[in-house]
């Protein structure tokens, strides 16, 4: 997006945790291991109020999310024709959550000021959004950009509309997004077609997890579950370490010797409902990091298994399904209906099929834009067999409102073609190729990550009926970060 009268380019993470939007200023509150150039990349840009003639200081909103911030109004633009001329956001006066959610945050929570502003402006009709992160592993020609649709979803990104998990947002928990799921099994998918459960077939091994689209990595697992994964999957940490972790973009996930690392896929089963299959190319990826000059680079001496082992200070944290989960799963959140849905993503999608979602969680596929007398057809969103939501088949938005949803959604799809999150800018997509660097030292098991505490993770019985900085170019955390002990 661009911010201010002089169109300052800022890259955001789409955050389901926060109600407000936060844009880091010229003080990015980075630790000393980051150079000034690396800090700008790490934060997704640096908003400079002194360079904008349209900024205006506004009242304190600390109680909304609890962060220290200078509250500002300024112009926010995205897509080819969508802008908010006076949008209020916070310029953080503290680090929001270290490297787990490093960039500026586009707040899409239950009381999202951003979604409310778009509804008020008539750009969308419902406080809903859907996310596909994009493919980030494998050869460059197989990688894809992501998608963020506001006010609806892209049906072309859904592998099977009827095979989904839909549930109520669990508000009031310490899972800030409200997207709490039970993982009933995790399977290793070997290339010879056999599967192996890290739960060893035990139903009582099911664990709760929180889906968080801005959180680093694919999944964080309690130590016993990670040990089970490692014992079955195999792999050797580099340089004879007992354990090694990345301090790069996939923060605190595991590193292995590229000649001895897991070569299969992974399937995550949600609440005896759908299964999300993660191919090896999205589970075992290059270790990318931010160099001291601000360039995104790749360490070719290791391979990054994007799983975080929860231990030590974080041993009782609720497991998180992070942003890379959205490389294999398509997520839709309808804040007004208080529901969220998960599908296996269709990564072969070429042509978008945008539909709106109304306040009763119905997909709206036909409409007459800009006409109060137009007709519309509302189709119930397919639901899983686990605690299906109550749907109102007859509920429809007016043609004009539905038109606003779809136009807004298409506008966002258009911009995401040009500002997909900078950290994953692809080689061969028109920008310069990422550089390659060798890291001097890797972190070992005695490192304690910053705490991201939500709900304690405990094994439990399954419920029976439950429930552009810019798009930064590919030149820019200093390699010395691997010496940094937390």
UniProtKB/TrEMBL annotation:
Residue ranges annotated for the Peptidase A1 domain, each copy included: 1-343
GO CC terms: cell periphery; membrane
Organism: Clathrospora elynae
Keywords, alphabetical: Membrane, Transmembrane, Transmembrane helix
Membrane topology: Single-pass membrane protein
Location of the protein in the cell: Membrane
Name this protein carries in UniProt: Peptidase A1 domain-containing protein
SUPFAM superfamilies: Acid proteases
